[in-house]
Write a structure and sequence with these properties.
Blueprint (H helix, E strand, L loop, with lengths): L1 H29 L1 E6 L4 E4 L1 H7 L3 H4 L14 H13 L3 E9 L5 E12 L6 E10 L1 H17 L5 E5 L4 E4 L1 H7 L3 H4 L10 H4 L2 H11 L4 E8 L5 E12 L5 E7 L17 H14 L1 E6 L4 E4 L1 H7 L3 H4 L14 H13 L3 E9 L5 E12 L6 E10 L1 H20 L1 E6 L4 E4 L1 H7 L3 H4 L10 H4 L2 H11 L4 E8 L5 E12 L5 E10 L1 H7 L1
Antiparallel strand pairs: 1-2, 1-5, 3-4, 4-5, 6-7, 6-10, 8-9, 9-10, 11-12, 11-15, 13-14, 14-15, 16-17, 16-20, 18-19, 19-20
Helix pairs in contact: 5-14
Length: 515
């Protein structure tokens, strides 16, 4: 009887160890993982670390993480990390910019946890899980750079804890119709509706900020002329070196990013449970049986989808299927996770209970019985990208609106035409094929083409400066056309000019009338 019970326990232990190993492999595939000893010297990095950083395992073993330090972040950030993980014995999280072996920058959402000897309490090392955000960050940066070429900066304002304005940038002043002198030293209350000013909600708003908490939402505010304006804004408490709130900075764009976090599975059940809790807090997690019926969803799943646990148990994931993706995508998913026994990854658009769409970076893995090889179920980890995707789409929509009503053309720094929209082609009498690849000089008078003024024009743009004026240009038929135009240098992620975008409207009639 004892032998039988021992056999059962051994079997359970074997299955538990296999399950732990499978989850470790799952997270190892989906995340950048590294470990260090108590002195911060690297003892292990996984394949994804080497792929993203460009360093081999041999090149980093025994070194500390300065090998990928970009030098961009302040030392205080790392002091906070050590305080969090060692003194507070908590989990530290920041988006960190590192530098790869080839010198390029990459961005990772980083979770770091210190490990301690359970008997002596002595520090034994560190574990870190990171998610590569580089592609999304660069994509967002490229789109943001295009918008910056049109609207160079955001509306920014700062307040003291006494609610008085400390600083307002020109964009904010222009947006609200005030001069900086009219704002600085005045109470924040001048920017809100009077009924809101006397409300408990407004008092709670400032109390929240004074405790060091951030607020991010859409806010109604009041311009100088008394009209309402709604801002998508973040209120950011600024701390001193003691961690005390000293002022509030408001930025009228939402820069919040949430990224997929994966957690390291520990080698014993207690560490395994801690790690599952770690992942469960950071990501959208769901599990299904062999028939695809949902057996578990975490709190984040219910928050994002709007469905409760009771509403989805026993159903398959069609409950959140948006119907947007082709069936072939799901066929590929089943082939990847069942036939190939791999991990499937795609950005998926789902539909919440209220009918709205949300976007999740999805990792799905099938689970198999270690003895029979039979399919036992599926695990999925997702990260909510909705805010980032919506922001990207909003910027695209703005660009489309500009293209619809303006003549738009883009040039390389070699003066060659890269793109011309239909409005531009129609205005000048060319087809796009007749323009793309040709020199900008074909659009100007020959005497201007050889002038010092023309050379200075391009030098100004190549230095990253904007130009906004009425310009004379030449149509295909040789006639003159006057354009009210802005020439907008577009920058890459390193801040270098890579092309010039021109946005124009026909000002010929106005110019001729003035003559």
């Amino acid at each position: 009887m004892k032998a039988s019970k021992k056999g059962v326990l051994s079997k359970e232990l074997e299955l538990e160890q296999h399950r732990l190993g499978e989850i470790e492999k799952f997270i190892d595939e989906a995340s950048i993982i590294s470990k260090a000893d108590s002195k911060g010297k690297i003892t292990y990095v996984n394949k994804k670390f080497t792929e993203v950083s460009g360093y081999s395992l041999e090149e980093v073993l025994g070194k500390d993480h300065n090998v990928v330090n970009s030098g961009i972040h302040p030392k205080d950030m790392w002091k906070d990390m050590y305080k969090t993980v060692i003194k507070d014995k908590g989990i530290w999280n920041q988006v960190v910019t590192n530098r790869a072996k080839n010198g390029s920058l990459y961005h990772v959402d980083t979770y770091i946890k210190a490990e301690f000897d359970p008997t002596t309490g002595a520090l034994t090392g560190y574990s870190s899980i990171r998610q590569d955000l580089t592609e999304l960050k660069n994509k967002e940066q490229d789109i943001r750079n295009r918008m910056n070429a049109i609207n160079k900066s955001n509306a920014v304002i700062e307040f003291g804890l006494d609610r008085n304005v400390i600083f307002a940038n020109p964009n904010f002043c222009e947006l609200f119709g005030y001069t900086q002198d009219e704002l600085v030293g005045k109470d924040h209350g001048m920017l809100v509706q009077q009924d809101y000013l006397s409300s408990e909600e407004y008092q709670a708003f400032w109390k929240t900020l004074s405790t060091g908490k951030h607020l991010n939402s859409v806010y109604e505010r009041v311009k100088k002329d008394g009209s309402s304006i709604w801002l998508q804004a973040t209120y950011n408490p600024v701390l001193d070196t003691e961690g005390r709130v000293i002022r509030i900075m408001k930025i009228a764009t939402d820069a919040t990013e949430r990224v997929l976090q994966q957690r390291q599975i520990e080698t014993q059940r207690k560490r395994f449970e801690e790690l599952i809790h770690f992942v469960d807090e950071a990501a959208i997690v769901s599990r299904a049986d062999a028939k695809g019926k949902i057996t578990y969803v975490n709190k984040k799943f219910t928050e994002v989808s709007g469905y409760s646990l009771e509403e989805v148990l026993g159903k398959d994931h069609n409950v959140v299927n948006s119907g947007i993706h082709p069936k072939d995508m799901w066929k590929d998913m089943y082939k990847t996770v069942i036939k190939d026994k791999g991990i499937w990854n795609q950005v998926v658009t789902n539909r919440a209970k209220n009918g709205s769409l949300y976007h999740v970076d999805t990792y799905i893995k099938a689970e198999f019985d270690p003895t029979t090889g039979a399919l036992t179920g599926y695990s999925s980890i997702r990260q909510d990208l909705t805010e980032l995707k919506n922001k990207e789409q909003d910027i695209r929509n703005r660009m489309n609106a500009i293209n619809k009503s303006n003549a738009v053309i883009e040039f390389g720094l070699d003066h060659k035409i890269i793109f011309a929209n239909p409005n531009f082609c129609e205005l000048f009498g060319y087809t796009q094929d007749e323009l793309v690849g040709k020199d900008h000089g074909m659009l100007v008078r020959q005497d201007y083409l050889s002038s010092e003024e023309y050379q200075a024009f391009w030098k100004t743009l190549s230095n990253g400066k904007h130009l906004n004026a009425v310009f004379e240009r030449v149509k295909k038929d040789g006639s003159s056309i006057w354009l009210q135009a802005t020439y907008n240098p577009v920058l890459d992620t390193e801040g270098r000019v890579i092309r010039v975008m021109k946005i124009a409207t026909d000002a010929t009639e106005r110019v001729l009338q003035q003559q």
